[in-house]
């Protein structure tokens, strides 16, 4: 959801760029505001205490677990809450298996995209190999000066 959150778009200088098509990003059509949903989830990744931030978001959305013939689903009161509730419950499921310290924002210059570190060492600090490489090249050039 980095393509929709305000802070990552601002850090990348992409505020004026058009937003991507929600269906092509998600694979399904969601009602509600994708920017507001992305901003809410960004706050979880950027928080000093991600679990507290996620719990606050879940309390506000109040998704209710519902068992169906196909398995567990979640229900919300408003159709506009579907996207943030879906993202929040996915993140909740991920956090059941990983520590909150494995969530974060990219440490590269001009990037604050989010990451969820599932590596064995838990030492990830960049959103992608591209940002890691740019950071290393910039550090090498600074040392060479």
Strand order of the largest sheet: 1-2
Mean pLDDT: 92
Helix content: 40-55%
Beta-strand fraction estimate = 5-15%
**Separation of termini?**
37 Å
Number of helices: 6
Largest sheet descriptor? 2 strands, antiparallel
**What Rg, in angstroms, do the CA atoms define?**
17 Å
Task: Give the topology string: H per helix, E per strand.
Answer: HHHHEEHEEH
The general outline is: globular
How many strand units? 4
Explain this structure.
With 145 residues, the protein is mainly alpha-helical. It has a domain at 6-103. The chain contains 6 helices and 4 strands, in the order ααααββαββα. It has a two-stranded antiparallel sheet with strand order 1-2. A two-stranded antiparallel ribbon has the order 3-4. A hairpin with an 8-residue loop joins strand 3 and strand 4 (114-116). The protein is globular. The mean pLDDT is 92.
Q: What topology does this entry show?
A:
Elements: H1 6-11, H2 22-26, H3 34-46, H4 50-61, E1 64-68, E2 71-75, H5 82-95, E3 103-105, E4 114-116, H6 129-144
Antiparallel strand pairs: 1-2, 3-4
